[in-house]
Write a structure and sequence with these properties.
Elements (H helix, E strand, L loop, with lengths): L7 H4 E11 L2 E10 L11 H26 L6 H17 L1 H31 L9 H4 L2 H4 L1 H25 L4 E4 L2 E4 L1 H8 L8 H29 L8 H30 L1
Antiparallel strand pairs: 1-2, 3-4
Helix pairs in contact: 2-4, 2-9, 2-10, 4-7, 7-9, 9-10
Amino acid sequence: MQDLPPFFPLLWKVRSFHLVTHGRGLIFEATPTAYDMSSSGILKSSLAKKYAMALTGLFLCSFLVGHLLGNLQLFIPGEEGRIAFNEYALFMTTFPVVKILSYLTYASVLFHVVDGIALTLQNRKARPVRYAVEKGSANSGWSSRNMGILGTLILVFLVTHMQNFWWKMHFSEMPMHEINGEQLKDLYTVVLDYFNPAINSFAAVAVAVYVAGMAAMGFHLWHGFASGFQSMGVRHETYTRWIEAAGKAFALIVPLAFASIPLYLYMTQA
């Protein structure tokens, strides 16, 4: 019998075993196999992963609403809009409760991404051989069948978005804006310049990337909003249709409102 590695309990599991006779006794033989990475993730249990995905996803939906309400101040023209948006940016980066919620948001994104990948791998391993004839649309929508791809696109968008705004706000030199004798970081000017074709030669590309990111977000929410409630056990023939309708409205209104901001800033500065 081949000896098992000393880290057997952590990295190996028994694939098969049998008993063989050896003289007057019996010997237990086990065949080890490498640990299945699709069962990994921040949480190990498949059920725990689904609950975490639902909770973090619904929390991030509430974050989107708050973030959108702040960003809508970019529609306010002139100095009034500049003051309103920069005071909002200061509040979001200094108020203790908001800072705690920000850390919770970062943790939620981490959970949602890592365990989302783990669930996708786990679901694919459960059916390693695809059917010869597959009619996915008969049982599920396009969004639900491509949540992994949509999530990856959103992650790429988030990285670029945070690099261009969040990173600059926290770690780069910023233009300053004096309000009532106090010097505030002028995030308003940074955002406007980023989508201004007269200043940024890649402004059109920036707008296209932002709109594409919001399209991916919309498709992701189209399935994910109602799915989050279903994973939490909130499903009944009386109110499920209302949750699904609210989810589809959310998936249309919120991403469209976000996408309208860079389009407006580009067109009004072109």
